[in-house]
Amino acid sequence: MPSRRQALSVLGVVSTLVLTGFAAVDASQSTSGATPRSNLRVMAPAAPGGGWDLASREFQQALRGGAVVNNVQVINVPGAGGTIGLSQFVEIGADPTQLMMTGTVMEGAINVNGSSVDLLDTTPIARLAEDYEVIVVPADSPYETLEDFLEVWRENPQGHAVGGGGLGGTDHLLTGLVAREADVDPEQVNYVAYAGGGEVLTALLSRTVEIGVSGYNDFRDQIEAGNVRALAVSAEEPVEGIDTPTFIEQGIDVALPNWRGLVAPPGITDEQRRELIAVVDEAVQTQEWADALDRNKWEDSFLSGEDFTEFIREDQARVDAIIEELGL
Q: Which residues form the signal peptide (predicted)?
């Protein structure tokens, strides 16, 4: 981990839980005799349109375009920072035709929501890529630069609402880390949690919050259209294609990658795990995946097998420590 990097890399409606739970069980039963090459399901543990959904569907296109898998489907199980999907996923059983997209946000949600299961209760397959957070303001905001906002934030942390994703997620962590580096008490920050970047954007444009925090791709269209202005990006170094300075370039020593990766259910055999790793490895070598990395400004960070397991163990510990330290 680079020395300058200080950071890492709600329950749903009852009927939704019942329906999605049934879908998960039914999926397990219906794949009897199938293999990852013939039939594969990828769970996006979030609503359509979010970061996990985007990553899942880009991965789906890579599998299809590269003819890696005959049939691949994406299913959405939203709620509680991905922990509802996680809790259902670990109950599927040892089915090698199931994968779940995961990442930094879920690590925070596991801690904050007191989840009874964590990512080490799954079978880690591979980390795919990292993307980055941005903080944005409406185009007519008086805050032209990051420092413009930090000046007023220091004076009255509770008087300036910051909108982001679920408690303990990447948006929340970034807000707390930036506050600490800017000499603002993280526990005094007026952080308003939303279900995803779309709701954050709506709150920002309706002036419900002054600052919006989310993944770059959640705001990209509005940034390019000139409706919102990005003040900083959470990368360690400038990102090609993102015309926004990093926090580090502006004197705030914070970098926060938001990784995306895939896990399988617990209990699959070593041979089945190796086959799933091979499937993912082939997918990330396709032109479709290369195009996805470029289009979404993602950074390739492929890591598989036991190396990925160890990364999850260390990263979860790091997230837990940050949440405790910041009082989030």
A: 1-23
- DSSP-based three-state secondary structure for 265: coil
| Domain of residue 30, CATH code | 3.40.190.150
The partner residues of 193 in beta bridges, in order of sequence, read 164
CA distances from 205 to 33, 185, 201, 212, 286 (A): 50, 26, 6, 9, 38
Q: Residues 148, 245: one domain? A: yes
In this prediction, residue 290 carries a pLDDT of: 98
Strands 211-215 and 162-164: parallel
- CATH code of 237's domain: 3.40.190.10
| Predicted pLDDT at 303 | 98
**Averaged pLDDT for residues 109-116:** 94
| Domain region containing 172 | 132-250
pLDDT at residue 49, as a whole number: 80
**pTM, whole model, 2 decimals?**
0.85
Cβ-proximal residues to 155 (8 Å cutoff; 6+ apart), any chain = none
Q: Confirm whether 3 is domain-assigned.
A: no
**Domain end residue (candidates: 215, 250, 285):** 250
- C-alpha to C-alpha distance for 174 and 193, rounded to whole angstroms: 13
Q: What is the CB neighbour count within 10 angstroms for residue 187? A: 11
Task: Give the number of domains in the chain.
Answer: 2
Whether 229 maps to a domain, the answer reads: yes
Q: Is the pLDDT of residue 257 over 60?
A: yes
Whether residue 301 sits in one domain with residue 163: no
Indicate whether 143 and 217 sit together in one domain. yes
Total residues belonging to the chain: 328
pLDDT at position 13: 35
The 10s digit of each residue's pLDDT in 280-297 is 999 999 999 999 999 999
Q: For residues 306 and 314, what is the distance between their CA atoms, to the nearest angstrom?
A: 12
User: Has residue 180 got a pLDDT over 50?
Assistant: yes
Question: Residue 255 falls within a domain, yes or no?
Answer: no
At 70 the pLDDT is 96
